[in-house]
Amino acid sequence: MSDAGATTGREPELLGQTVVVIGGSAGIGLETARRARADGAEVVLAGRNPQRLQQAADEVGAMSTTAFDATDATALKRFFEDLPDPIDHVMVTGPGPSYVPLLEMDAAQVRGALGDHVVLGLEVARNAAGHMRPGGTLIFMGGTGGRRISRELGLVSAATATLPPFTAALALELAPVRVNLIAAGFVDTPLSASLLGEGLDARRDELRAKLPIGRVVGPADVAALAVHIMTNTALTGATYDIDGGQQFVSG
Q: What DSSP designation does 197 have?
């Protein structure tokens, strides 16, 4: 039994289950793997960087790791074929948004901005479904910031709008495997730090002052939601916002 189960006097809810995290070497993916492991799951981590993956695996006690580019359809297919059956839950953190003014985008960039998350999600679903237990779930990551329209966001708002109906439709096709979407706002991760650079501390201070929760959302907050979605088998086809109320205040 894990320490979490021993502390609360209950059996861990993911005991005997396998959780696969694509994008599991850092940030939200790593924190979800850590929380799932603490709740009794075996975890499999995938990502592009083998060194970071191994470090993450050592941190959480992962069952295995595989380094590959998830947007490579052949590599993704091979990854799921090589996993021992069955698996229970798959989380895909996915590529981050690309903020490019509309008139500066070429056709390939437009296709990528509108389709990358959907195409990746569909390929993961296609390859994972046959290996998953009924009642397990696919969890995708989206965002709440793209729900507003602005010149700076470009096509991000259109891409954001496609994910909830895609998730719901896929949930009907894959049933009894469940499909859900987590829509996050700013999350204090290494990715956010790399994007903001020297502006990171100012952004943190701004959000602490503006957000209704009075603090910045962290990876552990998103991980707690992801594990709840895994364990609550009544949840499918839905989008779960986690942004500390950011979408309701400016910025």
A: G
Distance CA 251, CA 243 (A): 12
Contacts of residue 150, defined as CB under 8 A and 6 or more positions apart, other chains included, come to 157
DSSP code of 92? E
Six-digit token string for 229: 């979605």
Instruction: Tell me how far CA of residue 180 lies from CA of 16, 46, 154, in angstroms.
Output: 22, 20, 25
Q: Kindly report the backbone phi and psi dihedral angles of residue 240, in degrees, each rounded to the nearest multiple of 5, phi listed first.
A: -115, 115
Considering the domain delimited by 3-242, tell me its CATH architecture: 3-Layer(aba) Sandwich (3.40)
**173 Cβ neighbours under 8 A, 6+ residues apart:** none
pLDDT tens figures, 129-146 = 999 999 999 999 999 887
CA angle, residues 114, 178, 59, in degrees to nearest 5:
85
Residue 131 DSSP label: G
Question: What value does the mean pLDDT take over residues 164-192?
Answer: 94
Residues 232-238 have a mean pLDDT of: 97
pLDDT digits (tens, 9 = 90+) for 21-63: 999 999 999 999 999 999 999 999 999 999 999 999 999 999 9
